[in-house]
Amino acid sequence: MSSNQPIQSNQNRLRHRTRRHFFQDCGVGLGSVALASLLKPQGLHGAASDKDPLAPKPTHFPPKAKRVIYLFMAGAPSQLDLFDYKPELKKLEGKPLPKSIVGEQRFAFIEPDAGVLGPQFSFSKYGQSRAELSEMLPHLSEMVDEISIIKSVNTDQFNHAPAQIFLNTGSPLSGRPAMGAWATYGLGSESSDLPGFVVLKSAGGISGGAANWSSGFLPSVHAGVPFRSKGDPILNVSSPDGVDRSIQKRSIGLINTLNQQTLADWKDPEIQTRIDNYEMAYRMQSSAPELMDLSQETEATMKMYGAEPGKESFANNCLLARRLVERGVRFIQLYHEGWDHHSNVVGGLKGQCKQTDQASAALLRDLKQRGLLEDTLVVWGGEFGRTAMVESNATLGRVNGRDHHPAAFTMWMAGGGIRKGQTLGETDELGYHVVKDPVHVHDLQATILHCMGLDHLRLTFRYKGRDFRLTDIHGNVVEKLLA
Questions:
Q1: What pLDDT was estimated at residue 100?
Q2: Between helices 30-38 and 269-292, what is the axis angle to 10°?
Q3: Which domains does the chain have, with CATH numbers?
Q4: Which among 59, 61, 172, 439 counts the fewest CB atoms within 10 Å?
Q5: Helix crossing, 179-187 with 441-451: angle to 10°?
Q6: What pLDDT is stored for residue 472 in this prediction?
Q7: CB of 67 within 8 A of CB of 376?
Q8: Sign of the CA dihedral with 351 first, then 352, 355, and 357 last
Q9: Interatomic CA distance for residues 357 and 305, integer angstroms
Q10: Does 357 or 238 have the greater pLDDT score?
């Protein structure tokens, strides 16, 4: 028995030798080979190699949008004070809505018999489309012929966290992949130096948290990567003092060699994600500072957005979104918190519109001027709407606010694949129910994927024995939205 052990040992060694060992024995190491390849030109749009899970992939059909910028207004803007003008509510101010309208609907903080709160701002019609907008949106009114306003969006959820997660992932429960994750899973990315799915935040935390940009059960390389809008976009992306590029290159080479060996043994896609993340972080040490350097922008551009270098703001994030688009990032999501106006809806909307209206319109104008709007889809909206009834609660210190309303709210879309200069959908005279062209959240998701050249029925991932998709078992492309 003992005499055969050396022979069996040699046979086992030979059986498990691969090209990986050849490179290792040559003193090169696969990690160094992979890292060296990062420094070479990588072809069209900087596309990565075929082994890269974020390498560009073919679409199901020709796309109209190559990338998406989603302006998520977290907290839910009041559609009745910004987009969906209802003069009938002014006539009923202070009176309860008819029981036939409210039905058995539940509300988070008010009773169904609360009095009506009419529109708090004046409205006018703008552009050739004659779209009706609130006085709180003077900048968007100048770009109204570029957008499609959807007054008939509806959702199944009436609390912030589940509603935000539902709109982003198709499920109110954490654990499903976000739209951006599905997009990079289906299409890859055109950027080799930045993540395919980037998240930018302003004005506070988000109720749904990281579940809104999670990769869920998809490989985690598809998760959204939160960037900061000043300084290093990701903490610790810069090397510490005393560590230069050559030291870091050798370190990552060694780490990647070990990870490649483990990947060959276990075939775990999360190990590949770890390898990709090390390599991406190495590339980002050059690309990220250049991305964040707004001094490259003209004074006119900065003024158009209302951006200020070194400031964390929605305006800066909109300008960074345009810069990310130019660098091939597939899905960019801007979260701006602060729209949850249970009290003082007038003061709240004035503050939020001041922070967001100019930059949102500037983003559209800038993309159009640069020839990018035609293949960039821009989406604006929150997780649900606000009630026609007033919310006032002395105990909570609330007065003249609006509660959550999932049955009808407004969003707008522009750019790649969207018919511009139209208003789609209608609500009843009290802004309570959708009466024409309803657009469910799953319909919205199906339409976004369609604009990107993806069939939402065919973009699936098998998990725990069944195929999952963003729109679950629902959703239809909204043909009337398409150009």
A1: 86
A2: 30
A3: 45-233+307-422+449-481 (3.40.720)
A4: 61
A5: 30
A6: 93
A7: yes
A8: negative
A9: 10
A10: 357
Dihedrals phi, psi of 401, to nearest 5 degrees: -110, -175
How many residues does this entry show for the chain? 483
Contact predicate 284/234, CB 8 Å? yes
Q: What per-residue confidence (pLDDT) applies to 286?
A: 64
Distance CA(286)–CA(276), nearest Å, equals: 16
Reported as half-sphere exposure (CB side, CA atoms, 13 A), residue 166 has a value of 20
| Cβ atoms of residues 179 and 470 within 8 Å | yes
Report residue 26 CA to chain centroid gap: 45
Chain mean position to CA 172: 16
CB-based burial of residue 376 (10 Å sphere; 0-12 exposed, 13-18 middle, 19+ buried)?
buried
Report the 3 state secondary structure along the chain: CHHHHHHHHHHHHHHCCCHHHHHHHCCCCHHHHHHHHHCCCCCHHHCCCCCCCCCCCCCCCCCCCCEEEEEEEECCCCHHHHCCCCHHHHHCECCECCHHHHCCCCCCCCCCCCEECCCCCCEEEECCCCEEEECCCHHHHCCHHHEEEEEEEECCCCCHHHHHHHHHHCCCCCCCCCHHHHHHHHHCCCCCCCCCEEEEEECCCCCCHHHHHCCCCCCHHHCCEEECCCCCCCCCCCCCCCCCHHHHHHHHHHHHHHHHHHHHHHCCHHHHHHHHHHHHHHHHHHHHHHHHCHHHCCHHHHHHHCCCCCCCCHHHHHHHHHHHHHCCCCEEEEEEECCCCCCCHHHHHHHHHHHHHHHHHHHHHHHHHCCCHHHEEEEEECCCEEEEEEEEECCCCEEEEEEEECCCEEEEEEECCECCCEEECEECCCCCCEEECCEEHHHHHHHHHHHCCCCCCCCCEEECCEEECCCCCCCCCCHHHEC
How far is 297 from 319, CA to CA, in rounded Å? Answer: 9
Comparing CA positions, the residue from 407, 401, 391, 395 lying closest to residue 439 is 407
Region 74-97: mean pLDDT is 96
- Cβ atoms within 10 A of the Cβ of 126, count? 18
DSSP strand pairing (331-337 vs 197-202): parallel
> 461-463 and 466-468 as β-strands: parallel, antiparallel, unpaired?
antiparallel
Q: Which two tokens stand for residue 90?
A: 């002014």
Those residues with Cβ within 8 angstroms of residue 332's Cβ, 6 or more apart along the chain or in another chain: 67, 68, 69, 70, 197, 198, 199, 200, 321, 324, 325
Comparing CA positions, the residue from 411, 432, 258, 434 lying closest to residue 339 is 411
* CA dist., res. 385 & res. 154, Å (int): 8
Angle, helices 345-369 vs 314-326, to 10°: value is 20
CA triplet 163, 167, 171: central angle to 5 degrees?
75
Pick from 105-119, 143-157, 213-227: least confident: 105-119
Q: Give percent of the chain above pLDDT 70.
A: 82
| 111: CB partners within 8 A, 6+ apart | none
